[in-house]
Amino acid sequence: VQLVESGGGSVQVGGSMRLSCEAPGSIYGSSLCVGWFRQAPGKEREKVAAIFINGGSTDYADSVRGRFTISRDHAKNTVYLQMNSLKSEDTAMYYCAAAPRGYCPGLGPVEYIYWGQGTQVTVS
């Protein structure tokens, strides 16, 4: 099972970009937590945002709160990451991941068992 990401690319500082993450219907459901992670060269993987599919509660890293918005579209089994006011330090490989745990808060990378292939975001 693999998640499919799209929407990365290059953008200028201050610009916007939207990433999409489509999950297979076999795993998209009420117990699913979907998160966006990023990893820049030489740095650890960082959780950027997460959303609990049932109810839509969200969580954000301090570094992106107020600039990024995570949302979901049930009809398309898709989770989005809208990124505004982008900074050069947002440059990284972005991954979406899913955890069928029934909750979201406190989940670390090891608890997300389904991952996408990653999409590069470059801000300059």
List the helices and strands and how they pair.
Blueprint: E1 4-6, E2 9-11, E3 17-22, E4 33-39, E5 46-52, E6 58-60, E7 68-73, E8 78-83, E9 92-99, E10 114-115, E11 119-123
Parallel strand pairs: 2-11
Antiparallel strand pairs: 1-3, 3-8, 4-5, 4-9, 5-6, 7-8, 9-10, 9-11
Q: Biggest sheet: strands, sense, closure?
A: 7 strands, mixed
Which percent range describes the beta-strand content? over 45%
CA-CA gap between termini: 34 Å
Mean pLDDT: 95
Tally of alpha and pi helices = 0
What overall form do the CA principal axes indicate?
globular
Radius of gyration: 13 Å
Number of strands: 11
Portion in helices: under 10%
Provide the low-confidence segments as ranges. Answer: none
Structural class: mainly beta
Notes on the structure:
The protein is mainly β and 124 residues long. The chain is 0% helix and 45% strand. The chain has no helices and 11 strands. The chain has strands spanning 4-6, 9-11, 17-22, 33-39, 46-52, 58-60, 68-73, 78-83, 92-99, 114-115, 119-123. The strands form 2 sheets. Strands 2, 4, 5, 6, 9, 10 and 11 form a 7-stranded mixed sheet that branches. It is globular. The termini are far apart.
